[in-house]
Hints:
- This protein is α+β, with helices and mostly antiparallel strands.
- The chain has one domain: Gcn5-related N-acetyltransferase (GNAT) (Aminopeptidase), CATH 3.40.630.
- The protein is 37% helix and 23% strand.
- Strands 1-2-3-4-5-7-6 form a seven-stranded mixed β-sheet.
- A hairpin with a 2-residue loop joins strand 2 (68-73) and strand 3.
Amino acid sequence: MKEKITIRRAEEKDIDFLIKAIIEAEKSGTDKISYCNIFKVNETELKNILKEILLEDIEGQELCISGFLIAEVNEKYAGAICSWIECENEVQSKIIKANILFHYLGKERCDNAAATFGFLENIHIEREKSCLQIESVYVENEFRGMGICNKLIKEHVKKHSGKNSSFKKVQIILAKTNDNAYKAYKKIGFEIVKEKFSDNTEILSILPSNRMILMECKTPKYEV
């Protein structure tokens, strides 16, 4: 039976799969979930918080239902990716996301996490204004090797090109140690343009890696 791959916009009915995609992307091939480690919540609590945030559907950052596209193979969930144009509404995604997390996690948790942000800043990579940002990339194990990530990114480029023809680059920020993801992006035309490293070992108790990279691809390579 030939595999039928379909790609569509995410809806509220997909929220559990989107949460899975966000968490698995955060783990980056490890068992570490940065949200849990930074804000001292367990995975169940995190899933409930993410559900509330996603239902708000606030655009311009990665925790947003309408930012996601979903791939299905023979009507089974196969993968998901979120995207947005950075600063499309003149506000950085990190500011939008920080305000959302403060609202849903509460002042106490955010205040307690403030010290952590200080040393995480050493490996923080700023998102570039007016570039298409790719985030929360996830493909189910059984459907890997079918080009689903590539197809989803192409559809995101197509989706945003329809309303904003000015962006020239597609960018992805990821852990350098996520070798499978790095090789997959490189294969479809992405190259490393920036790298951040910290020798602070405390980072490895919070994040999957102490080395982050920014990969990008010029949009002509992604014209459909």
